[in-house]
Each structure stands twice: as structure tokens, then as C-alpha cells.
Write a structure and sequence with these properties.
Shape: elongated
Radius of gyration: 39 Å
Strand order of the largest sheet: 6-5-14-13-12-7-11-10-8-9
Helix content: 40-55%
Structural class: alpha/beta
Distance between the termini: 95 Å
Largest sheet: 10 strands, mixed
């Protein structure tokens, strides 16, 4: 049979029963003859006879065992140790208390994880619901629909439940276990051990041999080894192990010469304050883990329990000389781990400076160890990500044309902990800074997508590099790329910001501009700001100082934030500051001296390298109601989606600046809008005259009443290679949208697809006739 008896079983001293002496000179026959009653004898039955056969056999077995000497002693020790183990004599009250506290912590953590997952799920449902509502014909673009309102209410409720749970958990974990909890926990251990022992005996001694008698060759030796092991253990009384009692309610001081975190975390041994490696752990101290890191290593991606994650973090911090007092609130995230680190001296800067080396020790990618100071100077929120946190956030919303106001809060992205980034740019002056490959254009696209969906906002793109808003260009009211035009526009926009206050009382707006379709906000997005002229920079500073109250707003973008590039120190005074991968001096210039020590670490974000996107589109943000050093990522829109959105918004009508503001900016200022509108109309007319007629011609020649964009591109290239050779599918789609054909629609079964996207011949003919 197989018997499992753990190592280190203490035994209580117990005196063996005194057995009667056995005369080894007598034979069994003589004993039988001596004890046999003579027939007819009137003597009363002896005590030996009254005990019966079973009792006599048991007594004789005890006498035989007592005669064997060492074997008998070994069997008695095995029995005593097993009984002691079943009674949990090896567990002190402190051990049981530690187990109770650990159960409490696991329960609270499971509940908190459940609530956080519920929040993320509801946020995703809100995004989906908004997309659905914007596509309905009866949608009211001025407010959320009933489904979104209900989901937001549910999200607020779950958020309140999470906050209440965290408050209750902090109080519950600080309360020592009651006597009743200790008793129930100990009886639970007893039952578990008894079940383990019974399972080993029944399974190894009965069930397995019944299945296959040959298994006796395994179970019998295993049972004998377990029996030998149980009798070989020296009795050791249970002693208290204070370091195993949770330190969350402050009852356990750190042992002399150890890091205080050892009192709060099960560890493989005492780690000295000078960074010495821990030794061998006593049995049962460390929770089981699929891949326990060996002594001296810190591979946090390989562990799966909060205890070992906290231990890996503690080891790495101690290795780097960080004065760790304790590590608490270790929580597993889909992308890694979060915890709170309390230091015994100094500031959070010690961990911030050590972050690159901590990434090396824990085998992380660059920028994946993220320390964030808290209001308590001694406590740091530490995030350790071994996968991309933003791989788990929902996709971006698809906003319908004119579905928002600039005063509405828009979903612009998510934080690495899946919190939504919701803000309004009403009256906001801002700056976006990111180095080469840092995602500056992606961040501009995030804000431009939101602004061009507003019915009361005129968006102007300024870009000396000539790119403008790229695939979103058709959704802008004006795009300027030459230095002279940009300088002229900014001078006129500055005049608008100075003269618009006169309209506030006239239009009964109060003290601040109230944007509407009649009186829209004017927002200029100035990319590559250092390349503009000095006069443009001077006008830009004036706009950012005077334009807030009258919604004459400037959002500038640059690869650098220092004064020698920007031309002024205006960025640090703006209401919105967005920093992607950049230089450390850009962080200080934007967020102020001491920002890095406070946890603002955009300089540790990694820009695009070759085909690796790394941290493109990720940023730190201050403004719009956010002032926490945490990584965000804006909504990510690919080129094809932006082309579709721009075509939809152009077809719905791009908001235009009111006549009064055009007059305030001067003739040259107004002339820019007039010339751009005329040029765009001419381009659309030319595109309509060619792409629509050409497409209609090739479809009719092939006898097709519908076709995918890919098929249309092939037919145009074959028919007119001089015109369409090398033109991509995306470009053909863009030209069709610009000519008034709209975006691709579902056209049913074609080219082996059940419901493909493409264009119908009738729709193209209708668009062509409308353009002419």
C-alpha cells in the first residue's frame, strides 16, 4: 500500500504500553496446556479467557513487537508521527493565522479581478453600442442613445462597487483572525490530511492492485518506504514562524538583518539587507508554482502566483540596492503584474533610476517596468509588463459625420490598465511632442478624427512637410503646406482670437464662446511646428494666449519641445500636453523640473524601429482632467478606415467658418478658404469626369453589374495602363469616394465571397449623373 507522510512531522512523547513478560523457554503447547481448563474444574474463568480470541491475538502481536526491539520502536514512532500529523500538531497558531489571512487575500483579489474585468467588458460594450447607434437612421447625434446611457450607468455602479470593495478589503485584511476562523481552518487541514492518507491507503493498497495486480510491485515498496520515512523522523515541536504571518495588519516586525518585505512575502529564505541571495526554503513555505525561479534569478514572466511575482520584484529591487520595506497588493493583469512597493528611506526616484536595470534583471523589454509615485512619498505603484498592455483594450469607435460637439467628451483611447481616455477639446490649446518614429502623426490622427466628426468645429491642417492630415484630408476645411500660406493664415487667426470677444455679448453667449454650426470653433493643427517661420511662431503664441475663451484654438506638434526648436517656452503653459517617445530634456521642458522623478517617463518609450512598431502611438498626457503619470494609447485608425471616414464626412458636408470670423481675419485670410474650396471642387469634378466614367465603361464592357474594388482596379489597369498602371486599390477607392461614389458597400455574392464589399454599376451611374 502507498502511504504519504510529509517530512518534518513532529511527534508528542508517548510511553509505550507495558506488556506482560513472555517466557521464551516455554513452547506454545506447554502454554496451551498450562492455560487449558480441566474439565469439571469449578474455578472461575480467568481475565485472559474473558477477553476473547481477538483481544488475545492483539495482545500477542504487541508482545511479539515488543520483543523485536528496534523494529517495534520504529513502528511506534511511525504511528505517533502519523497521529500527530493528522492532528496538525506541527502547525502553530501563527501558521494557521497566516493561512487564514492568505485565504482572505485570495478571495478579495478574486473579487477585485472580477470587478475589473467587468469594467473592461462594459467599456468595450459602450464602444460597440456607440458604433451601432451612429449607424441607425433614428439616431440623435446630440446625445447618447438609451443603450449607451444604460451601459454608462452600469459602469458607474461597478466602479463604485470596486472602490467600496477596495476600502472594505483594506480594513478586513488588517483584522487578525478570530478564534472561530482559526478553529475552522485547523479542522479543514485535519480533514484534508485525513483524506490524503486515506486516499493513499485505499488507492495504493486496494484500487490499483484490483485494476492490475502487478501494481503491487510498486505500491507495496512505496508503502514500506513511506512507513520507514514516517518512523525515521525525529519528533520536533511546532514553533512559530512570524515571517509567515501576513504583515498587512502590522503585527509582525522584520527580523534583524533582513529586508522587511520578508515578513510580508513567503520567500525561499532570509534575504539580507546587503542583497545576499536567499537560501533553501523550509518545506511548505513557498506556494506551489509551475516554474519556480531558482535562487539568484528574477524571471517574472515565468511565474503565475502573486507570491512569486512579488518575490521576483523584491529580489530585483534588493539587488539594485533599493531600500524595500514591503511589497503589497500584488495583482495579476492580462499583460503582467502590478504591486505597491513601500521603501524605508529616500524617494521614488530610487526605483525610477533603477527601472532600466530592473528590466534586465526581470528579463523584460525596454520600457516595460513602469514605476509611478503616489501621494504617499514612501509608496510607489509598480507595473511590470511582460506583454503589450494595449493588446487587450477595445478597438476605436467609428463616429458618424457631425455626430458630436466639441463640447462633448469623446473616447480618444485607453490607459494601459484599460481605463478609457474621455475628454473634450473645448477651448483647449495644446501640444503633441514625439521624436522620429514616436507616433506623432498617429496621435494627430487620433485628435483629428474626433474634431472632424464635430458638427460645430472647423478643422484646418497646417504642415510645412506637405503631409497634412493624410487620409483624413478631405474631412478638413482647409489644408495649407507652404510657409507663406501658413504664416498668412496664423496672422488672420490671431486677429480672429482678438476680435471674436466682441461677438460674445452680441450673440448672447455669456463670457465664453458657445460653438454651434452657425458659430463654429476654429481649430488649427500645426504639424512640424519648428519648420514654420518666426512670424508664424509669434502668431501661434498670441493665439494660444488669447484664443481659449473664443474657441480659436491651436494644437501644435513637434519632434522636440525645447525652446531652441519651438521658438518659445509656451508648451509648458498649455492646457494639453501630450508626450510620446522623446528625449529626457523634452520631458523636463514640457512637464517641468523634477517631472522624471515624479514618474513622467515618456523618454523611456521606444519609437518605431524598422518593422517593429514598439510604442508608436503611446504617450503620457497632462490636461483634459488627467494629471497622472501613466501610459495611454490613442485610438488607432488605419489608412483605409480614415479614407472611408473622410469620404463620409466630406459627403455630409465639411463645417465652414462663419462669415463674421472670415471678415475679422482679413481678406487674405478669407481668400485662403475661398481658393482652397474652389480648388477642391475642381479636383472633385475632374476626378468625377474620369474615374467614374472609366469605371462605368469597363464594367459595362465586361457585362458586370457590380464588382469589388480589387476587380475594378484590375479592369482599369488592363483597359488604360497609361492612366492606372501602378495605382493601388486603396487609391482607386479614394478616387471613387472623392468623385461622389461613396464608400464600398455590401454587394452580395461575387468572386467566390458570400457578401463582398464593392460598388454597384447603378450607384456609379447615379453618382456620375449627379456630378454632371
Amino acid at each position: 500500500m502507498t502511504t504519504t507522510v510529509p517530512a518534518g512531522i513532529p511527534a508528542q512523547p508517548e510511553q509505550p504500553p507495558t506488556a506482560p513478560a513472555v517466557d521464551l523457554t516455554k513452547t506454545p503447547a506447554q502454554d496451551a496446556g498450562h492455560d487449558q481448563a480441566v474439565p469439571g474444574d469449578d474455578a472461575q474463568p480467568t481475565e485472559e479467557e474473558r477477553r476473547g480470541l481477538g483481544s488475545r491475538l492483539k495482545e500477542q502481536a504487541k508482545e511479539a513487537a515488543a520483543a523485536d526491539g528496534p523494529l517495534a520502536d520504529h513502528l511506534r514512532r511511525a504511528a505517533r508521527n502519523t497521529r500527530s500529523w493528522l492532528r496538525t500538531d506541527d502547525l502553530t497558531t501563527e501558521d494557521v493565522a497566516a493561512a487564514v489571512l492568505e485565504d482572505r487575500r485570495r478571495q478579495h483579489q478574486a473579487r477585485e479581478t472580477q470587478l475589473r474585468q467587468e469594467l473592461a467588458r462594459i467599456s468595450s460594450q459602450i464602444v460597440t453600442a456607440k458604433r451601432t447607434e451612429t449607424t441607425r437612421a433614428d439616431n440623435d447625434p446630440h446625445r447618447d442613445g438609451p443603450e449607451v446611457v444604460a451601459l454608462k450607468g452600469r459602469r458607474e455602479l461597478v466602479q463604485a462597487q470596486l472602490e467600496e470593495h477596495q476600502h472594505v478589503a483594506s480594513e478586513t485584511l488588517a483584522v487578525p483572525p478570530t478564534d472561530g476562523e482559526l478553529t475552522r481552518a485547523r479542522w479543514g487541514r485535519k480533514a484534508s490530511r485525513a483524506a490524503t492518507l486515506l486516499g493513499g491507503i485505499v488507492g495504493g493498497g486496494v484500487l490499483l492492485p484490483v485494476q492490475d495486480p502487478r501494481l503491487l510491485l510498486v505500491s507495496v515498496p512505496a508503502g514500506l518506504v513511506a512507513l520507514w520515512r514516517a518512523g525515521s523522523i525525529s519528533p520536533t515541536p511546532a514553533t512559530a514562524q512570524p515571517q509567515q504571518v501576513a504583515a498587512t495588519f502590522g503585527q509582525v516586525p522584520a527580523q534583524p538583518g533582513t529586508v522587511a518585505a520578508d515578513a510580508a512575502w513567503p520567500s525561499p529564505g532570509a534575504t539580507t539587507a546587503d542583497g545576499a541571495e536567499p537560501g533553501t526554503a523550509p518545506a511548505g513555505v513557498i506556494p506551489a508554482d509551475p516554474a519556480v525561479p531558482p535562487t539568484g534569478t528574477f524571471p517574472i514572466a515565468q511565474v503565475s502566483t502573486p507570491q512569486w511575482a512579488g518575490e521576483c520584484i523584491r529580489r530585483a529591487l534588493v539587488k539594485e540596492g533599493v531600500p524595500v520595506a514591503e511589497i503589497t497588493d500584488v495583482q495579476q493583469q492580462p499583460w503582467g503584474w502590478t504591486c505597491k512597493v513601500r521603501i524605508s528611506e529616500g524617494t521614488a526616484e530610487a526605483i525610477i533610476k533603477a527601472a532600466p536595470d530592473l528590466e534586465t534583471l526581470m528579463d523584460l523589454e525596454t520600457g516595460r517596468c513602469i514605476p509611478t509615485p503616489t501621494k504617499r512619498r514612501a509608496v510607489i505603484d509598480l507595473k511590470v509588463a511582460h506583454t503589450d498592455p494595449f493588446a487587450f483594450v477595445p478597438g476605436p469607435p467609428r463616429r458618424a459625420p457631425k455626430s458630436m460637439s466639441i463640447k462633448d467628451k469623446a473616447l480618444l483611447g485607453y490607459a494601459m490598465d484599460a481605463r478609457p481616455l474621455e475628454m473634450s477639446l473645448y477651448g483647449v490649446q495644446g501640444a503633441i511632442v514625439a521624436g522620429s518614429g514616436g507616433g506623432k502623426s498617429a496621435n494627430i490622427r487620433t485628435f483629428a478624427e474626433y474634431l472632424t466628426a464635430c458638427r460645430d468645429t472647423v478643422v484646418v491642417a497646417l504642415d510645412p512637410s506637405g503631409v497634412g492630415l493624410g487620409p483624413l484630408e478631405d474631412a478638413a476645411a482647409l489644408t495649407l503646406t507652404t510657409a507663406e500660406e501658413i504664416e498668412c493664415f496664423l496672422a488672420g487667426m490671431h486677429q480672429v482670437s482678438l476680435k471674436r470677444p466682441g461677438l460674445l455679448s452680441k450673440q448672447r453667449m455669456g463670457t465664453e464662446w458657445q460653438p454651434s454650426e452657425q458659430w463654429p470653433a476654429l481649430v488649427a493643427i500645426g504639424d512640424e511646428w519648428p519648420q514654420t517661420t518666426d512670424a508664424s511662431k509669434e502668431s501661434g503664441v498670441g493665439i494660444q494666449l488669447t484664443g481659449r475663451k473664443v474657441c480659436t484654438q491651436l494644437l501644435i506638434a513637434s519632434q522636440f519641445a525645447t525652446t531652441d526648436y519651438i521658438g518659445s517656452a509656451i508648451i509648458s503653459n498649455l492646457a494639453l500636453q501630450v508626450l510620446g517617445p522623446c528625449r529626457a530634456k523634452d520631458v523636463v521642458e514640457t512637464f517641468g523640473g523634477g517631472a522624471i522623478a515624479e514618474g513622467w517617463l515618456p523618454h523611456r518609450l521606444v519609437p518605431k524601429q524598422a518593422d517593429e512598431l514598439n510604442d508608436v502611438g503611446k504617450f503620457y498626457l497632462r490636461g483634459g482632467g488627467y494629471n497622472e503619470p501613466i501610459i495611454w494609447r490613442g485610438n488607432w485608425y488605419d489608412d483605409a478606415t480614415c479614407l472611408d471616414l473622410a469620404a463620409e464626412r466630406a459627403a455630409a458636408g465639411v463645417p465652414q467658418l462663419d462669415e463674421e470670423s472670415l471678415r475679422m481675419g482679413g481678406k487674405e485670410f478669407a481668400g485662403l478658404f475661398e481658393r482652397y474650396a474652389a480648388a477642391r471642387d475642381r479636383a472633385r469634378q475632374a476626378a468625377a469626369d474620369t474615374i467614374l466614367s472609366d469605371t462605368i465603361t469597363v464594367l459595362r464592357r465586361e457585362g458586370l453589374d457590380r464588382a469589388r474594388t480589387e476587380r475594378i482596379t484590375e479592369l482599369l489597369t488592363e483597359a488604360m495602363p497609361a492612366v492606372y498602371q501602378g495605382v493601388s486599390v486603396d487609391e482607386i477607392g479614394r478616387r471613387l469616394r472623392g468623385a461622389g461614389a461613396g464608400g464600398a458597400v455590401k454587394i452580395g455574392a461575387v468572386d467566390g465571397r458570400t457578401n463582398a464589399n464593392g460598388y454597384r454599376l447603378d450607384d456609379l451611374v447615379e453618382a456620375h449623373d449627379a456630378a454632371n
